[in-house]
């Protein structure tokens, strides 16, 4: 009679020597080898004992999206997630989406890891020091509960999101938004003395 290991999450029958499921990559190192008769008996015991169903498994992308176990690319951002180990649904609830601001004109990338003030004499100063339209303390950035916010601190050249001056108080920005520090697009051109960034998430850069 054929022997195999039954994946506890996706139910796939795996060869006895497999240490992880060929379908969802769940750890099988502690899973007993069974045959069809033994598997049937185990199912009957679980049913009689009122065992709770196994939680659903997902692949969680760096951008925070929960993907089906069978997914090889993130349904939201297209990132390769084939090497992401599946987790139970809800296991990534405390994971925070990672946000970065990527400069439009070069290779500079700023990751928002904590609440920070940016400007020519604050965070990003190594990049912004050559941008005279940017104030010394121009804007405040922070991530909270998976969302990214920006607050303008400059009273001269202001902060813009998608070419619109942001209102007083907090303004939420999203992946793909353009943030302008000290300038916007005028007559189809960006102001060289200002700084412009695109919001991106996780490793999707």
From TrEMBL:
The record, for Pfam families, names: FHA (PF00498)
- Spell out the protein name for this chain: FHA domain-containing protein
- The FHA domain covers which part of the protein? 116-166
Q: InterPro entries, per this entry?
A: FHA_dom, SMAD_FHA_dom_sf
Q: Which residues form a coiled coil?
A: none
């Amino acid at each position: 009679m054929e022997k195999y290991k039954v994946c506890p999450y996706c139910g796939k029958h795996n060869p006895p020597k497999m240490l992880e499921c060929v379908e969802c990559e769940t750890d099988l190192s502690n899973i007993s080898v069974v045959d069809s008769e033994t598997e049937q008996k185990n199912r009957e015991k679980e049913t009689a004992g009122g065992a709770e169903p196994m939680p659903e498994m997902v692949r969680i992308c760096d951008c925070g999206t929960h993907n089906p176990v069978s997914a090889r690319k993130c349904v939201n951002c297209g990132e390769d997630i084939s090497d992401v180990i599946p987790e139970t649904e809800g296991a990534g609830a405390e994971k925070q989406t990672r946000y970065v601001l990527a400069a439009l004109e070069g290779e500079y990338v700023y990751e928002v890891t904590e609440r920070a003030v940016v400007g020519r004499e604050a965070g990003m100063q190594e990049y912004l020091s050559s941008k005279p339209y940017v104030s010394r303390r121009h804007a405040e950035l922070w991530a909270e509960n998976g969302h990214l916010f920006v607050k303008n601190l400059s009273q001269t050249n202001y902060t813009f999101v998608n070419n619109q001056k942001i209102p007083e108080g907090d303004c939420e920005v999203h992946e793909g938004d353009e943030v302008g520090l000290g300038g916007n697009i005028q007559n189809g051109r960006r102001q060289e003395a200002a700084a412009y960034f695109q919001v991106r998430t996780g490793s999707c850069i």
